Amino acid sequence: MMNTTNLISRKSLADEVAEKIQQQIAFGTYKVDEKLPIEPELMQAFGVGRSTIREAIKILTNCGLLRVQQGIGTFVENATGIKEPLSQRLKRADTKDLDEVRQLLEMKIAEKAALNRTKADLVKIQEWFKKRDKAAKHDLLEECIDADIQFHIAIAEASGNEILIDLYKSVAIHLRNWFLEVYKDTKPFKETSHQHKQLLKSIEAGDAKKAWNNSAKILGHISQ
């Protein structure tokens, strides 16, 4: 069994409150340099506890949207050009947008992996392919999804591009939750087992063009 702790991400109350405050600012309810209501009023307005409000304020402060002046209050710092962390942005991403980013990343990491993979990388990719295939055959959906994601993460790591690796891992957190929602059984994973095997072979062969094309075939099958 793999440890999936680092892949699980669920939207917290603080995230939801932060989104609502952000929307209010975007709609002009609160303007730049305007002071937000005090904590008890925000608690009542959103129906949450003090710790949730404080965490939501912290999220928006880290984004550059709010500023906290000790002893005075919390003010709107910026209403446009919010510097929202990628992890936070991905939490509220539309599934179509998320899938498009995933497609671009998976084709590129496959191409780069074919050029830069090591023997150790190949062993890891092979291991996750076998786990994916085994879980699919035994109709173990959650294990199959986890193995599928780890298979592609292993390919990302084989790419040798640290930015691509970090980007794919960030997206993978949200892909897992999405897959758990849309897939009801392992049939789609069984149907793409051959394509995944071909992708693995093209990476082993160091054929970047085939790796790109095989990745595109997988994504094309899933999107149909």
UniProtKB/TrEMBL annotation:
An example molecular function term from Gene Ontology annotations: DNA-binding transcription factor activity
One Pfam family here: GntR
Superkingdom assignment: Bacteria
InterPro entries for this protein: GntR_C, TF_FadR/GntR_C, Tscrpt_reg_HTH_GntR, WH-like_DNA-bd_sf, WH_DNA-bd_sf
SMART domains listed in its UniProt record: FCD, HTH_GNTR
Keyword Transcription regulation: yes
Keyword terms: DNA-binding, Transcription, Transcription regulation
Keyword presence, Phosphoprotein: no
Residue stretches spanning the membrane: none
Residue ranges annotated for the HTH gntR-type domain, each copy included: 11-79
Protein name stated in the entry: GntR family transcriptional regulator
